Amino acid sequence: MEDYGRFLAFLASSLLVGFVSVILSLVWVFHYREGLSWDGGPAEFNWHPVLIITGFVFVQGIAIIVYRLPWTWKCSKLLMKFIHAGLNTTAMILAIVSMVAVFDFHNAKNIPNMYSLHSWIGLAAVIFYSLQLFLGFAVFLLPFAPVRLRAALMPIHVYSGLTIFATVIATALMGITEKLIFALKNPAYSESPPEATLVNCLGLLLVIFGSLILWMASRPHWKRPPAENAKILSPIGATPEGTEAESTMTNSSNADKSDLRSNTEAARKQNIKFDEAGQRSTM
């Protein structure tokens, strides 16, 4: 891997920042709010920020970069697909539970639902994330989708995944700010009490975590190498470039050799393209 040391630094930083963000969310709800419970009260609402930050931000971020971990490149690609899908499924479950907690709390307190921009964008993110997960299972995990279909959908899959992740970060920032404005009365949010400072720091950490994940996911030289998968996808009877089959054709004409090399090169590029489309994914 190119810039292996830099990759490890980014990876360690993202894991540290993400883990500290989860810890700060727990400190917030246990030290400054009412803790966690499932009784229709404020403590039930507190599941919302904790599960969003833990699942929809931290776990989803790890799912995005799991293919980039170089020590997994020798693992079965199918195994890595299941790990990628499992992490995203976990994030989806936690996000859904967090939304149930909000609706349950609002209904118990007769608070209107779905009136703020935060709730609109948040629900849209959950819906699109569900569609992303379903299409990922159907097209890239199950073996039924044609390779050309995977090739066509892969750019959309990658772009939509990163867009949803960035949207989740932005929605989380809107949510924690909205919560502070509603909850802090004496002293008010504008007076910067300790709780406001803590949650503002939490918001900064979320931005840093999202930036680190997006940077790692967008570096092409940190992608999983396609060479081994290209060998697996080679058509039966095709002659890989540089093999003995080409070198032993000493009695063939120069035109035959040129045709063989051209066909081999075209097949190799096609296999690598199919591998990148059908196998590699950042999300």
The biggest beta sheet reads: none
The overall pLDDT, averaged over residues, is 84
- Category by helix and strand content: mainly alpha
Distance between the termini: 20 Å
Question: Radius of gyration in whole Å, from Cα?
Answer: 24 Å
Give the structure's gist in a few sentences:
The chain has 283 residues and is mainly α. Helices cover 73% and strands 0% of the residues.
Describe this entry's structure for a reader.
The chain is mainly α and 283 residues long. The chain contains 10 helices and no strands. It has helices at 4-32, 42-45, 47-65, 77-108, 117-141, 147-183, 194-217, 227-233, 244-247, 254-278. The longest helix is centred in the middle third of the chain and has 37 residues, at 147-183. It is globular, with a radius of gyration of 24 Å. The chain starts with a helix and ends in a 5-residue tail after the last helix. Residues 228-260 and 274-283 have low confidence and may be disordered.
List keywords for this structure.
283 residues; mainly alpha; globular
What topology does this entry show?
Elements: H1 4-32, H2 42-45, H3 47-65, H4 77-108, H5 117-141, H6 147-183, H7 194-217, H8 227-233, H9 244-247, H10 254-278
